[in-house]
């Protein structure tokens, strides 16, 4: 199979968690604590994947300047976009129980927020396959877990606002497809670039994802499962670390 198509399919798989979360919110709501636990565990897995796979690979591709500059740049761009979206109804887009958005456009802001979170994650999937490497399934699992509460929250808010099922699931299917395209682009576009550009891109995505974890995932998980959020997050980190080493 063509490597670009393979990257796109992995990105589509991780993005499909948005549809799964939306389905849960629409048809079979589950306990807030369960979703919060998934979010905390996914945070730990994502942090592990960033620390031991993405940043390490970026370091091997380029210089400290390109990696560090990309990392800080990704965090800065994500933070600026997140602040803008937070004032438009997307502050709690990963909340473990969807809340009706106070603003009329809050549901759409949540969807735009999902793109803000999902595109760097999906690009990472494609970029890490450059050079013939296998996909980081640890990263795919982590991204999948982080997307479930986001789809749940936004779909619940849109349902409360009177949106139809066709609208909600059509929207999330489109965003999942964009995730697949972003993963494909991460491989197809950047595979011909110099090492420092690849390293900067990986660092940029890593900085954006780490900012997303700190700004949205961990605070929302702590709000609901605060007694155990830290332990669950550490468990996710350890599980991903051990499995990545065993798989290597």
The dominant shape is globular
Q: For the CA atoms, what is the radius of gyration?
A: 17 Å
Q: Can you summarize the main beta sheet? A: none
List SSEs in N-to-C order.
Answer: HHHHHHHH
Report the helical percentage: over 70%
Portion of residues in beta strands equals under 5%
Q: What is the first-to-last residue Cα distance?
A: 23 Å
Structural class: mainly alpha
Number of strands: 0
Total count of helical runs of at least 4 residues: 8
Overall mean confidence score, pLDDT: 79
Q: Uncertain regions: pLDDT < 50 for 5+ in a row?
A: 98-105
Model description:
The protein is mostly helical and 248 residues long. Helix content is 81%, strand content 0%. It contains eight helices and no strands. The protein has helices at 3-27, 32-61, 64-90, 106-127, 137-160, 165-188, 195-225, 229-247. Helix 2 crosses helix 8, helix 4 packs parallel to helix 6 and helix 5 runs antiparallel to helix 6 (165-188). The protein is globular and about 50 Å long. The two termini are 23 Å apart. Mean pLDDT is 79; it is low at 98-105.
